[in-house]
Amino acid sequence: MAGYGLVITSLDVKDIRFPTSLEAHGSDAMHGDPDYSCAYVIINLENSDLKGYGLTFTLGRGTEVVTRAVHSLSYLAVGKSLNDIYNDFAGFWRVITSESQLRWIGPEKGVIHLATAAIMNALWDLWARLENKPLWKLLTDLPPDKIVSTVDFRYISDVVTKEEAIRILEKSQKMKKEREEEMRIAGYPAYTTQPGWLGYKPEKVRELCKAYMDKGFRAFKIKVGSDLDSDRERCKMVRNIIGWENILMTDANQVWDVEEAIEWMKNLAEFKPYWIEEPTSPDDVLGHKRIAEGLAEFGIKVATGEMCSNRIMFKQFMQINALHFCQIDSCRLGGVNEILAVYFMAKKLNVPVCPHAGGVGLCEMVQHLQIFDYICLSGTKKDRYIEYVDQEHEHFEDTIVMRNAHYVAPTMPGYSTKFKESTIHDYEYPNGNVWRKILAQRI
Ligand SMILES: [Mg+2]
Predict the structure, then answer these.
(1) Is the pLDDT reported for residue 1 higher than 60?
(2) Structural domain contains residue 10
(3) What residue stretches are annotated with the Mandelate racemase/muconate lactonizing enzyme C-terminal domain (predicted)?
(4) Which DSSP string do the residues of 128-183 spell out, in sequence order?
């Protein structure tokens, strides 16, 4: 196909930050003053205006470190033709995650993996643009063996093999058309965290719960973990507005010890939380299992994944039933290649995936992934939602479309991650128009 002979000439990387901490958007028990940000990658091609756009989400300071890591990795992509990459995408993923000097500062975790995600996400965006399809459609149209060929099965073949993944995908082929239609019209169900930020005053929480009920939302998540009395107050207030027939999720963003998590959540059990998200360290597989067991009699399930470093960690969590909801993050894992690996394991082990979103561009990205999951893998929406936060969508050219609390399948080519030019102009750190003004006031 035309275009695949094009050669990558350079990767531009930008540090884009939004001053969300000024109004406590995104605040939780662990992150009191996040400035929603991202390392933004643009892939340039020789003799072509076509580009790929990808990002990885960050919280402000630290974005300069991730952009630096993208620079360090970019030599692996420069000079490659798109054929070189897409004909053996898993091979390229292996190359970028196994660079013998850079893997020392990972491997497959932390800053270097966030940088990998930004590059891989840009490559997936580019592939979808080349095919003139939204990413979810690129994925659903690819033959099963081609999708599977993008995944590196090293370290996970004890749970799912390449052959099994192909068989799983083959099973859904005849249902694809009908499910696609459903995603274009009705869309995929969402829950919202909008009323839940810890820094919001009670009146604001109340107002937002009502507003989102009116928009059709029936599942709400609130942040907990700073103060038990105020958590109880807020749970009560939110329940009063949303009623008992709707869903209330809770999220502690890693603040508790294992036993503390169990005790704290027992004190919130009367409000019937659907899940407790990130109750303790994101690396503590056995701790999560203990919490899941300790809370089972109260009907509270455990969700985690937004800071789960890689497919190997997800494998362990799911193998021993330490999580009930798998919350993949489109930027924490190393791009769509690794996310697909997690989806295959989740399907095999029968764990529902509810992607983490919000931040910058996460809603834009995960809608593609979850729609693919519905069409080609899970075939069900039972116990599955995509997180929704109304934050920073206006900066993207292909902004998300919500209809009655559902994500409607995107129609524009790509991974929905291209910023408007004006956004880069205003929010590039530290010299964008908005930052110049803010920083001048701080001096
Ligand atoms: Mg969370």
Answers:
(1) no
(2) no
(3) 202-296
(4) HHHTTSBHHHHHHHS-HHHHHTTS--TTTTTT--HHHHHHHHHHTGGGHHHHHHHH
